[in-house]
Automatic annotation (TrEMBL):
One of its GO terms (cellular component) is membrane. The chain crosses the membrane at residues 12-31, 43-63, 75-93, 99-122, 134-155, 161-180, 201-220, 240-256, 268-285, 291-311, 323-344, 356-374. It is found in: Membrane. SUPFAM superfamilies: MFS general substrate transporter (SSF103473). Keywords: Membrane, Transmembrane, Transmembrane helix. It comes from the Bacteria. One of its GO terms (molecular function) is transmembrane transporter activity. This is MFS transporter. The keyword Transmembrane helix applies. It holds the Pfam family MFS_1. It is a multi-pass membrane protein.
Length: 396
């Protein structure tokens, strides 16, 4: 098997994360164009957008099975090239049915790539002498920023949705072709199980991923309303909260590997969770708008490296095959993004929006409380002798 600790394999992994974030962000500015082209109301548009999520979740489950048998490389290539080929069709689909099919296929490619690239990242990190997962996840965020910026600029220059997506697809194809020969050729044993029911430690990791992604999805969908209804900012500045959160999360992940190498996974889980919870408290309690807004920075910084730790531990555990564990963690995390905003809305109906955000902070308390369990320096399977490697002296 080829070495996993090579600059070219790390580059290929970063390109996969970059393409995934870039592709998803390219679609977001096209939503108003799709609505106008089809002439549908908000209800139909919501159902169409759900197709993307359903396609992603279905593909995530299948990807775990396929990667257990064939490895992550062919799935990364197929998913990345599939995104590039399908993206332009989202601008020309002329009926709700055809757009729904295209979005489901787009979501399936995105979900497949999401799982496969995380499996690949786990393998690459295992061969390295330092943590790499946070940096990989930072590239997803950077790709999202670049994608939304490029499409917005092209549309502002009157390029048109089809031309804009064709140019973006060309960039994605170049990136995937560059990554192709540099990806690891890892294949599991022929008798590897195609499905294992998640249990025990993997269920804990999956639950923590769902909570963390739920918080991110809730801030994306509800932060602007929270700020405007409480009179912190006017409607035109409602997006500042999520912008601060996203910038802080990206910066936290860019420096996350170095921090993890110095202090260890346990410190990341424990103090990251504490900082994020403190951010919620400042956001909800401070009467001064500028101080309250700093809460988004703390939430983003604190939560930024929790998910990379969860993926790392999912790849190291022995309860089930690493690829299936990563797929389970990814799928439940994505379910948190899908279900979370609706759950916040339900809670807000009964407790008010600030009360719903306090519930998010309470849920996030699980992360620091479980830091010791998640990062204890021993195998997560009874009878296993070799403990997974940990980073930093504070993991002991």
């Amino acid at each position: 098997m080829q070495s996993t600790d090579r600059p070219e394999t790390r580059l290929a992994t970063r390109l996969a994360f970059l393409v995934a974030g870039f592709a998803l962000a390219c679609w977001a500015p096209l939503v108003p164009f799709a609505k106008d082209r089809l002439g549908v109301d908000d209800g139909v548009l919501g159902m169409l957008l759900l197709c993307l999520g359903l396609g992603s979740v279905a593909a995530m489950l299948a990807t775990g099975m396929l990667s257990a048998r064939y490895g992550s490389k062919p799935i990364i290539i197929a998913g990345g090239l599939g995104l590039a080929l399908i993206l332009p069709t989202l601008t020309v689909a002329s009926t709700p049915f055809t757009l729904g099919i295209a979005l489901a296929a787009f979501g399936a490619c995105l979900g497949s790539l999401d799982v496969a690239m995380n499996i690949h990242a786990v393998e690459v990190e295992k061969g390295a002498d330092r943590p790499l997962m946070s940096g990989f996840h930072a590239l997803f965020s950077i790709g999202g920023f670049i994608g939304s910026l490029v499409v917005t600029l092209l549309l502002s220059a009157k390029a048109g949705p089809l031309v804009a997506t064709l140019l973006c697809s060309a960039v994605m194809i170049v990136a995937m072709v560059a990554a192709w020969p540099r990806l690891l050729r890892t294949v599991q044993a022929e008798d590897a199980p195609l499905f294992v029911m998640p249990r025990g430690f993997v269920l804990l990791l999956a639950a923590l991923a769902a909570i963390t992604f739920l918080v991110e999805g809730a801030i994306l969908d509800w932060s602007a309303l929270l700020l405007t209804t409480q009179g912190r900012v006017d409607a035109s500045h409602g997006g500042l909260g999520y912008m601060l959160f996203a910038v802080a999360m990206t910066m936290g992940r860019l420096g996350g590997d170095a921090v993890t190498a110095r202090f260890g996974d346990k410190a990341i889980m424990l103090w990251g969770g504490v900082v994020a919870i403190a951010g919620f408290a400042i956001l909800l309690l401070s009467p001064i708008a500028i101080i309250a807004m700093s809460g988004f920075l703390l939430i983003g910084l604190g939560a930024s490296n929790i998910v990379p730790v969860l993926f790392r531990k999912g790849g190291a555990q022995k309860v089930m095959p690493a690829g299936l564990a990563v797929a389970a963690i990814t799928m439940t995390g994505y379910a948190g993004v899908l279900v979370g905003p609706a759950g916040v809305g339900f809670a807000a109906d009964h407790l008010g929006l600030p009360g719903a955000f306090w519930l998010l902070a309470l849920l996030l308390c699980v992360a620091p409380l479980c830091a010791g369990t998640v990062t204890r320096n021993r195998d997560q399977e009874e009878g296993e002798a070799d403990a997974p490697r940990s980073y930093g002296s504070m993991d002991a």
